[in-house]
Amino acid sequence: MKAIALLLFFSTAACAQSPWPAEKAGKWYAQQPWITGANFIPSTAVNQLEMWQEPTFDPATIARELGYAADIGFNTMRVYLHHVAWQEDADGFKNRIKQYLAIADGHNIKTIFVFFDDCWKDQYHAGAQPVPVPGVHNSGWLKDPGSAIDNSPALMDTLEWYVKDILTTFKNDDRISIWDLYNEPGHFGHGDKSWPLLKNVVAWARAIQPQQPVTIGVWNKDFNSFNQFQLQNSDVVTFHNYRDTTSLLSAIDTLQTYGKPVICTEYMKRPSNSTFVTHLPIFKERKVGAINWGLVAGKTQTNYPQGNKGGEAEPVTWYHDIFHPDGTPFDPDETDFIKAMNR
Q1: What is the C-alpha R_g of the chain?
Q2: Is the pTM of this model over 0.85?
Q3: Neighbour-count burial of 244, counting CB atoms closer than 10 A to its CB (0-12 exposed, 13-18 middle, 19+ buried)
Q4: Residues 138, 210 contacting (CB under 8 angstroms)
Q5: CB atoms < 10 A from the CB of 62, how many?
Q6: For residue 98, what are the contacts with CB-CB under 8 A and spacing of at least 6?
Q7: What's the domain range around 107?
Q8: Per-residue pLDDT tens over the stretch 305-324
Q9: CA-CA 20 to 30 A from 221: which of 7, 64, 67, 322?
């Protein structure tokens, strides 16, 4: 069986596509609105598994909170998947993705799905997820696959089937804007251990040939080898930047030399002078997409500062996020500004 699977893989990989040329990427981007939005997880989920597993999948909250996004003119959400949700219940997981996409489409919102992630908690399991540690930023967010891939090399086969199944199912779905193959490879001490999965997920995606562009966002300017590989294998250029306008403009100037559309898929950390008021005008003027971290403050607690110990009062200035769960903005002037920029 494994030999047959490998034969099928190599036969499909042989006809895999190359990254989109700049002309094709430019034509795709010209058909899009100015891409603005947020990284989204419903406020009732502490992590990706709680979002996607059947007992805790929460379409009512998803619908309500995507409504907040639509009201301020956002048109794109970046949403993380997790292979364990597929491994436990592949058909159910795909049906829940379809439910999510139907809800988002009802708000005229497209989705960037993220497959893998090197950030935060290394241990994870199916079933009930841990309750948030009070006041701790991202106390329950999960890596995927994390060090499990180092300890169980056979997991690579599972991840291949997972990626190919999801891409095959949704490769022609217009409600999906982009496939983000791997969030921040090498982060949280993984370093060069991330290379095998990074190279494989690119090959798996190219073998399926989705109609949507694929990308792997650059996030650390000192990761030269990673950055070169990620940029060379992305149909559209994506990046993360949580710093001030000087840093942002430097990143945009550098990345636009590649001649492809540029989208920032993570930004907005108020204490670091990365705000909507400072950054959105730059993104709009430079025709760069803008996806901030966080929509509704909830169980991920990303309105609290990263690295905190917990137990503190809610910060006066939120770190990330825009709305309280009831839809009240953290700062009404800020949401008015976002809405005006999105007109």
Answers
A1: 19
A2: yes
A3: middle
A4: no
A5: 25
A6: none
A7: 20-342
A8: 999 888 889 999 999 999 99
A9: 322
